């Protein structure tokens, strides 16, 4: 096939493709808040959520963040967005760690964090609400799933929500409009590479 023939074929194929895409674009007409769930065992859930936080702030929007698990170290996202005027940032109290092994204390910390998250989900000024590591709250029964689902359903119509965490309950997949399941194909940790500030937290 000559280059000329190849170019002509490519043009014809792209024309057909454009017609299909244009038709799909025409059919997606709803403008409303989207619920996104980012789950799976691969790395990239929270960092993806915070990428969208940056995107929203870039457009001059206000954002609410609740992190349901407090790690050992303060995260870069908390240091950056925690003091940003466009962001309301709440981290679950230090009561929750894998070390306390005190279920009652962890449950209380979860309930307190949820109070703030619930307030974010009623605030129409927030264009985006991130519920980071939310899935674990149901795994250990720290929060009633029904209460959270009801708050998601009742939120302002234009508000987007991103939930992250492994092992999401089927109800969370169901209520979400967009679900991304991040696969763990390879992880540096298993190659003996330590978690590092800025890249991992
Ligand atoms: P990130 O915040 O980097 O986007 P994540 O939110 O997808 O990661 P979490 O399960 O919340 O992943 O894990 C938080 C920490 O664990 C991060 O430091 C991350 O680098 C690390 N991590 C994520 N996935 C894996 C994995 N498959 N194996 C080992 N460590 C991981
Ligand atoms: Mg995470």
Chart the SSEs and their pairings:
Layout: H1 3-27, E1 35-39, H2 45-58, E2 62-67, H3 76-81, E3 87-91, H4 103-120, E4 126-132, H5 135-139, H6 145-154, E5 160-164, H7 170-175, E6 178-181
Parallel strand pairs: 1-5, 1-6, 2-3, 2-4, 4-5
The chain binds adenosine-5'-triphosphate and magnesium ion.
Adenosine-5'-triphosphate is lined by residues 41-47, 164, 166, 184, 187, 189, 195, 200-201.
Ligand species? adenosine-5'-triphosphate, magnesium ion
Reported for the largest beta sheet, the result is:
6 strands, parallel
Cα Rg: 20 Å
Mean residue pLDDT: 93
Spatial shape: globular
What's the number of extended β-strand segments?
A: 6
Order of helices and strands: HEHEHEHEHHEHE
Distance between the termini: 52 Å
Q: How many H/I helices?
A: 7
């Amino acid at each position: 096939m000559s280059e000329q023939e190849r170019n002509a074929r490519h043009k014809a194929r792209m024309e057909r493709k454009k017609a299909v895409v244009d038709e799909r674009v025409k059919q997606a007409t709803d403008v409303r808040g989207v619920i996104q769930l980012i789950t799976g065992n691969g790395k990239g859930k929270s960092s993806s959520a915070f990428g969208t936080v940056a995107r929203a702030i870039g457009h001059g929007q206000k954002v609410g963040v609740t992190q349901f698990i407090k790690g050992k170290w303060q995260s870069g996202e908390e240091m950056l967005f925690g003091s940003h005027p466009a962001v309301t940032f709440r981290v679950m109290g230090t009561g929750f760690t894998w070390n306390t092994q005190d279920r009652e204390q962890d449950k209380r910390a979860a309930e307190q964090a949820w109070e703030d998250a619930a307030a974010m989900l009623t605030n129409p000024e927030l264009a985006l609400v991130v519920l980071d590591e939310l899935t674990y709250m149901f795994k250990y029964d720290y929060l009633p799933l029904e209460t959270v689902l009801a708050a998601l359903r009742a939120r302002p119509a234009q508000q987007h929500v991103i939930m992250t965490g492994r092992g999401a309950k089927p109800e969370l997949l169901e209520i979400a409009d967009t679900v991304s399941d991040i696969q763990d194909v390879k992880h540096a940790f298993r190659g003996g590479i330590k978690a590092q500030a800025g890249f991992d937290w």
